[in-house]
Fold these 3 entries.
Entry 1:
Amino acid sequence: MSPASKPAVLPRVRIVSPAAGSANNGNAHTAARWERFLVPVSTCDIALGWSGEPIDVLIALHARRSATSIARFRFACPDKPIALVLTGTDLYGDLARREGDASARHSLECASAVVVLHEGGAATLPPAVRDKTRVIVQSATAVVARAGAAMGGFVAVGHLRDEKDPLTLMRAACAAGPGIVVTHIGAALDDALGAEAKRTMAACPNYRWLGALPHGAARRRIASAAALVHPSRLEGGANVVIEAVRSGVPVLASRIDGNVGLLGAGYDGYFPVGDSAALAALLRRFEAEPAFAEHLRAQCAAREPLFRPAVERAAVRTLLADLVGRMAIGVKAIEW
């Protein structure tokens, strides 16, 4: 049978994510969302790695943590495409250090296409890598507060680990003054930070740590908050910021590339990374000045269309279509 007469089939896609679905973190949510987008146009699954299963396209999250699967697939299937989705740990950690990480750099070399999750994500990459890099901004559904739900207060959603800078959040909450309450949602991935959260909560009525919550419960908390506080030191494009904006909730965010890439350079709700005094002042201003709060709300509303699922779905399917277009006849073209 000639190549032209072979029956077309849906492309087989493996999404490799370093986090299982039960992890309830950004990588797991991204993998699950992309799988939903691709299932109608491919045979798609999610796994922690690739070990020789018959697939046509590999989509891998995280250059270092997926490096073994990427290298194995490139060696075994040199003519098949790989899309590498770079996380914040990749861009501002493993690939940013002067010596870099050899496995992460090798993943970049192996990739047919590289994906960054915010507008400024490619700036730190070598020019040769930028040429094969595209931006796919993540999305979220629009969860709104339930009728009768108590409104107000500040919420932060992020596991307790150094990259999320929970200590700055705790110190700012305690320094913000009477009447300001910050509710913090997230698992203690670092025991010392978990212990500090408990000490802070006992000593400071402004700070409430709830621990981990299911994703749906966390989203409802965000939707009913006056604002989301996001003090991260390092982000590739945080899902939680997008979720807040889609819920009509403004964001008080550290001025890092991952936040600026989502909210825009002209956004007025930033504070210097790690500066608890500046965050405390921002909390007080938001609480005391309704016009300022409304201004941030309007700025976020202007960004909201970027974060709609239809936009991300089209970009993810275009990525797959471009990758499949490089393959031999016999794989069905992507249509939607």
Entry 2:
Amino acid sequence: MGRGPSIEGRKSVEDSKRAKVFTKFIREITVAARTGSDPAGNPRLRLAVDRALSANMPKDTIERAIKRGSGTEAGQQMEEIRYEGYGPGGVAILVDCMTDNPTRTVAEVRNVLSKNGGHMGSAGSVAFQFSSRGELRFDSSLEEKILEVAIDAGADDVLTEGQNCVVYTSSNRFHAIRQALQAAGFNAKQGDVVLRPASYVALNEAAAAPLKELLERLEELDDVQDVHHNAEFSAPA
């Protein structure tokens, strides 16, 4: 009977995944800090720091990334680039990257798309289908208590979705509304500013398989920060 991976092997894989996640956060913090090194006055930086802290990134690592971005510490100059394309089934895909070598990055993204049933699109061909919004998730039992506070603070809507009460906000009001809810004693179990498509492309399990493979390959690229798509995967039969 074959043996599974050793404890050392599993730890090595987990450490590698953790390092990749931390690298993404460092890049995001570095770029965000260009427009201000104080998270209190820089919403994008505050969100990036919150994400890093939630992933247990050490505070000194975060501080170094802020210093690098604000110009007080030397480092590579990173550039933000968004690529647009299509995957199997006509699914729209946005690929957000941070790179010090755009020529390398665009070649890698194009190669993954073309080898996995997709193709690059022109600028603007996909992005219009997505919009940015804040989402704060609480236990559904809190909806009545949260509703008034959230709406008074400027939330767009409060809806129950399954076991969650979801507060929807504009991206620029996300932090203010989260703070208002925290001040009222409500701490979200999950909260972030996300890109959501205006509509979805429904895929059955068979059609979803090649798309999932493509998305995995894109997310594995070192320069890729986030991958967004408008696929809706049906539950297995």
Entry 3:
Amino acid sequence: MPDLPPEPSAAPTPSGDDDAYAPPAELEDGRWSRRSASAIPQDDGQDPELAAPGPDRPRRSAGLKVGLALAAAAVLAAAVLGYRSHQRSQALAVGLPKAEALLRLDTAAGYRGAANLLDPLAKLDPMQAASLRAFALAMLAADYGDADAEPRAEALLVEPGRADTVPPFANLATAALFLGRRAVADAATYAGRAGRHPWAGTLQARIAFLAGNLEAGVDPAAAAAAADPAQAAGQAVLGDVLRRQRKDPVGARAAYAAALAASPLNPRAAYGLSKLALSSQIPLADAIAPLQRLLGDAPGTPASERARAALHLAAIELRSGDRAAAQAALTAAPGLDGPGRTWAERAATVMASERKGYRAVLQAPPAMQSASDDD
């Protein structure tokens, strides 16, 4: 039988002997370290994590600070974006109606002013505002021969042209560009795509003039003038339709007067009154003031339009028997060299001599060519 290991001796029992328990030196001399103190459990009724923070407490505090900072940054960014969006909306709400009012003048100064006003807005809104600016530039190119305006208009039309729904003014701008190139079919196509917009009717009537089909321009011109009475272009085109068909000179005069009331420097309306006067359908005096205004507007009216106004004014003065006033009008015309002055004197004589109807004189020199005088 194997020997068993000896039984362990019983644990010593405490006794009064001082050697039985020797306290650490730190207790004897009252020294406590933070490490030894923190190792002693505390039970004072508090959450242990709050009462005795562990080693990850600093990390949690730092993470909380970072989170709060990120949240504050997000709130600030949202506020900035909201403010910018509000400012953008306000700028467009104020600028777009002002630009459309300038377009309604149907003058070079109006189109140029609208294009300048819309320049920063087109960057904020590359659809509606950019389309509106493209239209202003397209009309400058088509009616006033601004060669730089055409490529700028085309550049603005790239993004609107790719949209699922093309803005009306993008189609109108394209129609105006084709009108300036005398591309009747393309101009009619894009004007039709603009729907029942007042400017669509105005352009459709002018396209009909270009195609030699006056009858086709009656309804669009009437619709445009009725839809927006403050649009000088529509009123002036309606006056041309009524005058050239020789059916309603009274209506033509009223339409021209409405156009000039909305836009005192509108070239088409001023020339239209002159043609009614030279056709003996209204008094000669009624046409003089609008032509004089146009001739004297050097800051805003292009030289070719002012020269054209001088031609009409000279014809009216010749009809009234005042040759000196006729010569003075042609002298005030800008850009007329020797051959141009000779052509203008002969043309004014022909226009003044025909009393049964207005007689347009063709092959005008470049200094007197005008898209607004398109008989």
